[in-house]
Amino acid sequence: MYNIVIFSGGTGSIAIQEGLSLIYGNNNYNLDIIINAYDNGKSTGVCRKIFDNQILGPSDLRKNQMTQYKIQHFEALKDPLSRESVIYKIFNLRIDAGSKEEYYDSVCEILEKDRAVIGDKDIYYFKGLLDFFFFENIQSNVWRKGIENIEFKDFSIANVFYSAAAAMNDYSLRLAGKDMSTILDIKDNVHLISDVNLYLRAKTESGYMIMDEGEMVEWDNPNDKIQSVMLFKNGKEYIPSVDEETDLTKVRSVKNIIEAADVIIFSSGTQWSSLIPTYMHSGLRKILAASNARKYIVMNNVEDRDMKGVSADNIIDIICSYIPIDDVTAVVNEDAEDSMNIVSKTRCISGHIGGEGTKHDPVKLISLLMKDFFGIIGFDGAYIYDLDGTLWDERANNHGKAVGSQNMNLFKGIIHSGNNYEHVKDVFKYLYHQDSVVQIYSDFGNVYFTSGNFEKKVLTHKYIVNKEVANELEKIDDFKGKVHIRGEGCVVTIKPLVNREVLLKKAEACLDKFNGIYDVHISGHTSIDVMHRDYDKKTMLNEIIKMQNLSINKVIFVGNETVEGAEARICELGVKTIQVDDVYECNILLKTINA
Fold this sequence. Notes:
alpha/beta, 21 helices
């Protein structure tokens, strides 16, 4: 599966998350979202103060988990009376109250009203968080000291839950997020870059210090732009490290998540207050520089209020101070406002990816980005696919088989399989349900048939193996009864075998008497194959291209062994290859092609 990582603020990555889900579903790729939690505005700032400024701000964690909740429980949320819908409504409620007593009683009333739908266990959990937030000792009716002078205006119920959960987890917001993912029944895939309790400040060009993150978000001053941001710990400037104060015995490390990534997306959003505080963590630049992932930065459609008067190119200049930008591709909406619709400071792709108002269209955005990832933007030629381990995998679990079956009815193209005719025929007989007729080449390419007519034909007699080869191999005790001729005589397969590395040497010694005409190699899961030295998937792909009257530069070959294995030499033809490690990655490719 592909590992996709998003660097996000609070709501800036909603279009990215939704686009991935709308095109690919939720279970055929791994998604991780990396955030910071230095928000200090509105009810978030109040929550931090109530717990003596010892917890991080929960709002961006809450927003991203709620986005994932909405995506992962999409079907259940269609029913407004479902448990999922009721919890979603509560987690998005903001309440006005004249006193702590009124606010507490209002939330208790809401929870009690929905007890039958949510269930006693989870109501008990939410009520416990509420009690912990408001009381030092609820049995003695001792209210928290910090709660006395709070103005409960537009106050998020979910922030109460998250901040209480953090305080109960030894002030760890990351562990609170892990607990919440369990209660919400979503993947634990929103990660804090670190769990250090810090506060964000900003400095403008005039030297003015912005002391509140809420003021920073709404700065809106092109005549005195924000120049830098700083993090403070106990009143002193502090630069945190990636994964600092994170309990890595209980949660995954951000470092490992980045190292495993195939795609890294730096989200659009509010840069100074939401994204740059993540990028400025010590060690992140080095981790990103070492990553082989394809990296993208999604540019806003309009100038954000914390960066008024700052163009897309100016943003690249600012960000390159924090993260390596040389291998980052900017994704730009051609219909964005003039200052944001072009990037010249780094590689750039663009398209009409705008949505409603200032937002991106989720499907158009992800389609553009992932087509670039696969290198298929504008491609109008033929796709040629390997079958086993690429489109279909008979050894996969039930989910993998379901994905493989879907792949068989998504792809458009030609099949070039190393597997035998009977197997390939059966896969198409039972799994292929499209109307279009597929041209199929099995046994490394020399056996030709179609999905509409299983009568097989030989592509060329040039590579037929001398019958004496099979006779000589059959004389070896380890191979008796296991030698099979297939591919209309082009392949001699020995199977089933174990300890194949040792037996390979015996086969090689046997073939020495044939003057180097034949080659032998490990194939499949239990086989050794003997063929003409120059008979392989590369050679036969060239024959297929000729037969199909295709141009080399108008062909893309998709397989699971294009880097190492039977397909590794195909690139020598000048054909573009796409490596997919399993049926899940192939599924992502197919849905990208069709998007």
